[in-house]
Amino acid sequence: MSEWLWPYVFILVAGALATDMWRWMGVLAGRRLDENSELFIWVKATATALVAGVIAKQIIYPSGVLAASAVVLRVGAAGVGFAVFLATGKRMILGILAALAVLSAGLYFSGF
Amino acid sequence: MAFGEGAQLSQRAWFFQGMRGLFSLPAFILMMAFVGFTALAHESGLERGEAVFMTAIVWALPSQMVLVSAMQSSAGLLTTFIIVCLASVRLAPMVAALVPEIKTSRTRAVTLFFLSHFVAITAWVFTLQRIKAIPRECRTAYFAGLGLTLTSVNTLIVFFLYGIVSTLPPILAGTLYFLTPIYFLTSLWGSSSSRVIHLALGGGILLTPVFHLMLPDFDILAVGLVAGTGAYAIDLVLRRREVTGE
Q: Where are the domains of chain B?
């Protein structure tokens, strides 16, 4: 196989197939699922908990630049943001801005 | 066929409404996250074409990050396939939870298989937040408009910014990266007033460090099953109590 083509085949198989196959399974399962069933509530709870896992990993075990920052800062920033979000009647933008303000100030003062 | 024409017209209108989702806070945050991804992919030594291709056909940021780091460390095809699978399993219940909300009895399977490609966290949360306000027969059109727009615009972002944003100042790069989890957290909590969703979200976050230490390779999967099932069970018990009036 020509040299330039291999990464694309790699991305197609190890990336797209490994991702889309779960989406297709979700369609197969979802087509049989009744919106008002107990099973549907469980699926929704599990999907939400999986996304919660993704969120928590990005905060607690980040990759890239943030990996060098203190975990206390990241968890603290997320906590402050979420508290502001709840305290302001679920104003998403205020919660997000509060979290980012705490984080960027913390990064600045820890010499980033 | 006045009725048919009317339905088609409103489907087109809802497709357009979905497209307009591009001009929203969540879409802006997603675009910022893809700016971050562009820098990461460039730093990791990927070619522009590879990063663009990956964005269009994988279309799930956490899976793309795993794929990029596997390619950077020259991991084998099978190893990479398995770790990307682990990062992507969550899409199955996410799609399964969305499909009953957007389909009608006449929706074709091929439509759903096609649309499922555009399911990723942002479009999923965004759609679930607004779905009840959309007439059922227009929901697939709405999701198609949103999904196609988000995917193509972000693919274009990766294409045009490749190599340009390779050197973001560290504070900016870190803050951009942090935007994604904090947005998912607040939007997912705000998208639902149902107790079971809040239990699953809170439980999932609290259990992640525990399972990360116990099962580092399967942590997200374990968190999903344990926190999801736990949230369902607690909610079920509370619902039964409410019914019996205890």
A: 2-180, 192-246
Which of A:2-21 have CB within 8 Å of B?
7-8, 10-21
DSSP B216: T
- Nearest CB among A13, A23, A53 relative to B95 is that of A23
**Helices within B103-138 (DSSP H only):** 109-116, 121-130
CA–CA gap between residue B69 and residue B72 (Å, rounded): 5
Distance between CA B29 and CA B144 in Å, rounded?
20
Please tell me which residue of chain B has the smallest CA distance to A60.
Answer: B209
CB B116 within 8 A of CB A27: yes
Spell out the per-residue pLDDT of chain A, length 112, in tens.
Answer: 578 899 999 999 999 999 999 999 999 999 999 988 999 999 999 999 999 998 999 999 987 789 999 999 999 999 999 999 999 999 999 999 999 999 999 999 998 8
> Which residues in chain A have Cβ-Cβ distances shorter than 8 Å to B89?
22, 50
Of B29, B197, B226, the CB nearest to A48: B197
Distance, CA of B121 to CA of B185 (rounded, Å): 11
Residues of B in contact with A107 (CB under 8 A): 170-171, 174-175
CB B25 within 8 A of CB B149: no
Q: Rounded to the nearest 5 degrees, what angle is found at the Cα of B32, between the Cα atoms of A111 and B61? A: 100
Q: Which A-chain residues 56-85 have CB contacts (< 8 A) with chain B? A: 56-66, 69, 74, 77-78, 81-82, 85
Q: Which residue of B lies nearest to A42 if distances are taken between CA atoms?
A: B232
> Distance between CA B227 and CA B204 in Å, rounded?
5
Q: Which ipTM value was assigned to this complex?
A: 0.89
3-state secondary structure of B134: coil
State the Cα–Cα distance between residues A73 and A25, nearest whole angstrom: 39
